[in-house]
Amino acid sequence: MEDEKYTSHVESGAANGGPSAPPQKVSFWTKRKNHYKRFWWLHLLILIIVVLVVTLPLVYVGFPNIAQSQLNKSTLNITMQQITNPTPTSVQLAQMAIAGNPSSYHPNLDGFQAALFLEDTEPNIQPFGYIEIPPLHATRYTGITTNQTLNITNMDQFTAYNNLGLTTKTYRVALRGRTKLHEMKFPTTTVDFNQVVTLNGLNNFDGINVTNFQLFLTPQGPDQANLIGEILIPNPTIQAIEFGNVTFNVSVDGQNIGQSFLNNLMLMPGNHTYPLRSTTDQEAVIGLITSKYKDGILPLTLIGESVVYNGQHLPYFEGPLRNSTQHLNLNVGPALAQLGLNLGSLSGSNSTG
Q: Where is this region: Disordered (predicted)?
């Protein structure tokens, strides 16, 4: 009876707001679930921030570095070059080149201005001119064609460039510029274009030779030429160069015997012959034949004197030609025979005289 009274009292107390039974314990996973229901927006915001922290450096720092690295691996090969219409301060420069891109990326590059310079002026480069590179879509191999007036910005450096081209077998010229690179949805990035191109040089016109000629007792034409013929000038380069009127001083063993003229010279790639006119001191030539070179073969030395185009001297061609020496052997025996002069009789008359 007492227990029944106690139970009835407790139930009555609970019903009247007295002490209640302890609450059931909520599990960890239930709490977590409830937390995410209430604060889902906060966790989404944190996720977005984390993603941005990871991807933004990749896009805005990593991608520009990757783009520059891939551009540094590209190659440039010049396949054709023409230098025409030279003036004392400019030339017309036409070029064709192939740009190689080993990357799997095929970006677009904006057009840009590239400086042309010699490597030995780095790091403080001294450009001798600037060319405009057109916009490019960088596929595996991309053709580049330019044709523009190259204004000479540094005469000493342009002269040095031509000196390398004339006197060496190979030489290097560098290009440097800055442009914008576009690739898919990545942000536009600025990249530096740095290339060094190796070109074949003229190697001092190695192999130059007078292929045929005639001697005249009476000077011919306004230049008073008494030797007229053709000269072979090897050009192992991809360059065609318009020189204009080129004059060489000609000597044998240091003794001047005259001048040779290559008028309206347009030097083309390959082995080609060009018209040659010379004024020679015939008495000096006869003296050399009768004294030392009785076989009629004269060892000629040619040194550039002047290069003139449209009446104007071109110092960037003249300087290298004056510093360059060409040697060739000239057999004057057949030409003298055409004039009725026999080498044997000339030598005999000299020995008896």
A: 1-24
Q: Domain 204-352, CATH 3.30.1120 — does that match?
A: no
Dihedral sign from CA coordinates of 221, 224, 227, 232: negative
- Any idea which fold 71-201 has? Immunoglobulin-like (2.60.40)
Cβ 99 vs Cβ 75: under 8 Å: yes
| CA-to-CA dists, residue 289 to 175, 286, 298, 313, angstroms | 52, 5, 8, 36
Q: Any bridge partners for residue 96, and if so which? A: 80, 145
Burial class (CB in 10 A: 0-12, 13-18, 19+), 96: middle
| DSSP-assigned letter for residue 61 | I
Q: What is the pLDDT along the chain (353 residues), one digit of tens a residue?
A: 444 444 444 444 444 555 555 666 666 666 566 665 665 555 556 555 544 444 444 444 455 777 788 888 899 999 999 999 999 999 999 999 999 988 887 889 999 999 999 998 888 999 999 999 999 998 999 999 999 999 999 999 999 999 999 999 999 999 999 999 998 777 888 999 999 999 999 999 999 999 999 999 899 999 999 999 999 999 999 999 999 999 999 999 999 999 999 999 999 999 999 999 999 999 999 999 989 999 999 999 999 999 999 999 999 999 999 999 999 999 998 998 888 877 766 665 544 44
Question: Minimal CA–CA distance to 90: which of 144, 133, 165, 148?
Answer: 148
Q: Which two tokens stand for residue 349?
A: 């008359």
Tell me where in the chain the CATH 2.60.40 domain(s) lie: 71-201, 204-352
